């Protein structure tokens, strides 16, 4: 039984096309149905697809890495530039908001001129801005460099989902979407963990120099390993595969660029609950990761007097949790769909995937509560003494966030495959905007109701809007697609 491929399409294939697909893939049960062109990204060798995905995903990782890498050095930055610790936290958060909104600009550009020029341009400007950050002498210069760098490298974070859709079949998307989401998620904790050592043993400016070196390596990798994935099967390119995929800068889509293109991710998502509700649910859960990372310096440094290196080690909880969560989320999501497919003899509705998200929500909220209550207990003691117990809660929350992210992003993309870039841009905007707004609210909330009360408020919002939104999708989603 075929998945979502129309029988008429298969019957209309030429004999040559049939033979090519059977020889290349071993079946005609493919969704979407590729062309007979070896340059079609769906027909690429597995190693080419994986190398492309990993290179793009590592660029997504580097965005969070560069953003959060400065967090352990907040106190050093505040002393050097003569600003407050709160102002120093904006050196990280300014990039978060840029990551969220810049894909609205880059998505229509990439749909006309291809993904590859955007990747290359983004990583090059990020390289220049990291050098500028290292050389900055004032707070204003540093913020400007960070904002510009975040705007350009944000293209990768918003459009990574399009790479998965353009190179993999639907039955594989859960696994490979999970690779992209997990590498995107571990960027911040990996940056905080590793750069804590740098800030402790070198000068904080070396954080920016190391990020610049990383961008330089990525630039070479993108030149060699990321061929163009934008491909029109109705009008295949006439250039050779080498020129088309690596050497050509041409317009793929002749549609004129208009201001409404910038608004398309908004208009598409706000009129489709199958995009808006998953984006909101994932964005709310993602704030738990941001909360446990951004608030660390402001809670742990005054209470436990941790050095930058010791503070950075506390980022390992989210890192480990994310990796564990992805081992469950991606393969489990695809297995869940294949099992249902075998049982009913046809491709199940995308809403069937959503059942797995409830596991993630429970773990995310449970981890938040443990992190907040254990931190409150340790910091509120007569003689505060540090131990790693709150980080266990942080790791549990990381597992839950990764499950929720992989399941819900895959669901939204499955419902809107032709608009995967817009879906990715909107999902990214929601989670980054919520992550940016949180640090302005959380300190006052913690001061007013304590860490335990903060956990209750945030957990209640996620339960009401996040879980509630998934329930609505399962009840009404089929009719609204």
Could you explain the architecture of this structure?
- Helix 5 runs parallel beside helix 8, helix 5 crosses helix 19 and helix 7 packs antiparallel against helix 8.
- Helix content is 77%, strand content 0%.
- It contains 19 helices and no strands.
- The longest helix has 61 residues.
- By secondary structure, the protein is mainly alpha-helical.
- It has one domain: Up-down Bundle (Growth Hormone, Chain: A).
Write the layout of secondary structure elements.
Elements: H1 7-11, H2 15-25, H3 46-68, H4 74-81, H5 85-101, H6 103-113, H7 115-135, H8 139-167, H9 173-201, H10 205-225, H11 241-247, H12 259-270, H13 273-294, H14 296-304, H15 308-313, H16 316-344, H17 357-379, H18 389-415, H19 420-480
Helix pairs in contact: 3-5, 3-8, 3-9, 3-10, 4-5, 5-8, 5-19, 6-7, 6-8, 6-12, 6-19, 7-8, 7-10, 8-9, 8-19, 9-16, 9-18, 12-19, 13-18, 13-19, 16-18, 17-18, 17-19, 18-19
Task: Summarize the biggest pleated sheet.
Answer: none
Number of strands: 0
Report the C-alpha radius of gyration, rounded.
23 Å
Shape: globular
Low-pLDDT ranges:
1-5
């Amino acid at each position: 039984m075929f998945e979502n491929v129309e029988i008429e399409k298969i019957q209309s294939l030429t004999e040559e096309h049939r033979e090519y697909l059977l020889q290349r893939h071993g079946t005609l049960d493919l969704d979407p149905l590729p062309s007979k062109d070896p340059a079609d990204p769906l027909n690429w060798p597995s190693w080419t697809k994986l190398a492309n995905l990993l290179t793009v995903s590592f660029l997504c990782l580097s965005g969070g890495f560069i953003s959060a890498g400065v967090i352990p050095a907040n106190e050093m930055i505040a002393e050097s530039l003569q600003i407050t610790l709160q102002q120093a936290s904006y050196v990280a958060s300014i990039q978060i908001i840029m990551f969220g909104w810049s894909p609205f600009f880059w998505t229509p550009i990439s749909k006309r001129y291809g993904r590859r020029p955007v990747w290359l341009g983004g990583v090059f400007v990020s390289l220049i801005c990291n050098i500028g950050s290292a050389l900055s002498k004032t707070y204003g210069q540093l913020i400007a460099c960070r904002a510009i760098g975040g705007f350009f490298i944000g293209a990768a974070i918003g459009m990574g989902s399009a790479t998965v859709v353009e190179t993999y079949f639907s039955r594989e998307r859960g696994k490979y979407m999970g690779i992209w989401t997990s590498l995107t998620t571990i960027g911040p904790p990996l940056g905080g963990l590793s750069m804590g050592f740098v800030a402790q043993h070198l000068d904080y400016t070396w954080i920016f120099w190391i990020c610049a070196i990383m961008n330089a390596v990525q630039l070479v990798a993108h030149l060699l390993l990321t061929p163009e994935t934008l491909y029109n099967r109705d009008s295949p390119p006439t250039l050779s595969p080498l020129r088309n995929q690596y050497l050509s800068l041409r317009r793929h889509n002749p549609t004129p660029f208009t201001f409404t293109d910038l608004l398309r991710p908004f208009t598409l998502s706000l009129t489709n609950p199958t995009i808006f509700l998953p984006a909101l649910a994932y964005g709310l859960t993602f704030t738990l990761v941001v909360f446990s990372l951004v608030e660390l310096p402001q809670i742990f440094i005054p209470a436990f007097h941790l050095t930058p290196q010791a503070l950075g080690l506390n980022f390992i909880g989210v890192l480990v949790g994310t990796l564990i969560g992805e081992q469950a989320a991606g393969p489990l999501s695809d297995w869940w769909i294949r099992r249902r497919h075998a049982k009913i003899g046809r491709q199940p509705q995308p809403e069937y995937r959503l059942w797995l998200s409830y596991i993630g929500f429970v773990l995310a909220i449970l981890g938040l509560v443990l992190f907040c209550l254990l931190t409150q207990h340790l910091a509120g003691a007569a003689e505060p003494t540090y131990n790693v117990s709150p980080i266990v809660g942080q790791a549990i929350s990381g597992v839950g966030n990764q499950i929720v992210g992989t399941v819900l992003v895959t669901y939204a993309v499955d419902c809107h495959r032709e608009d995967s870039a817009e879906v990715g841009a909107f999902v990214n905007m929601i989670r980054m905007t919520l992550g940016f707004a949180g640090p302005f609210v959380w300190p006052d909330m913690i001061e007013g109701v304590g860490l335990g009360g903060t956990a209750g408020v945030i957990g209640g919002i996620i339960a009401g809007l996040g879980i509630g939104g998934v329930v609505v999708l399962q009840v009404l989603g089929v009719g609204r697609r």
